[in-house]
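Message: I would love a firmer grasp of how sequence relates to backbone shape in proteins. Thank you; the sequence and its tokens follow:
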Amino acid sequence: MTLKIYISGTLYDKEDAKISVYDHGLLYGDGVFEGMRVYGGKVFRLPEHLERLWNSAKAIWLEIPVTPEALAQAVNETVAVNGIKDGYVRLVITRGAGTLGLDPNHCRSPEIIIIADTITLYPREYYEKGLHIVTVSTMRNHPAALSPRIKSLNYLNNILAKIEGMQAGCVEALMLNQKGEVAECTGDNIFLVRKGELLTPSVEAGILEGITRAVVIELAREQRIPVREMPLTKHDVYIADECFLTGSAAEIVPVTKVDSRKIGAGVPGPITLRLLDRFHEVTRQ
């Protein structure tokens, strides 16, 4: 079956899905997006993703030309028409076609793009044995310059960090903020476990407010695991009993080595595995 791509109200075959080369999303990274998981044919936490999308759009003065309800329907219909039972949705809002100048007032109308497909981010081995990551020198965007809370199309900051991590032999990399504190990885939020407590950087550290991150915090509190959102340093990472990453595509992936230092016992820890099992229960009911 040919994949169908939704573009501003119309479904196109994948090979025919096109936008203008003058679109400011392409020319300047001017737009916002969401990445969402589909479990059992249903988009996981769709209302939360749409709320974050609207917040990101509002922060960059981008008016989404439909209602949240209409966009939710379009997402669900795109998932259904492609027969996606367990997969991934990329929802993109661009500024639209304009001129070669920066002025967004010359853009005609925002484009809405919905791609529903399958995805495999990490092989099973990483979930069973843990991921190795490295701290990179590429700093997370300063919140006063471009807030990491905006999930924008301009991901060059993350891409440069990803390249640096891959050059060090790691598929994921840890980024610090302008204070030298732990922020997040290139595509995932980070959690530590220390003496039975779950620790994660707060929003003030300059991180994206991950939807999966929020789900994990909910699940931890449901299981009476103490959670603290707080400033963290590399030292905190190195002495942690456990470490794991969260993201819509990654879900929950254990980390067993950071900067060549073994984390805890060097295998996925009990609290990580407990949360992973519970997350699977919630998403695969």
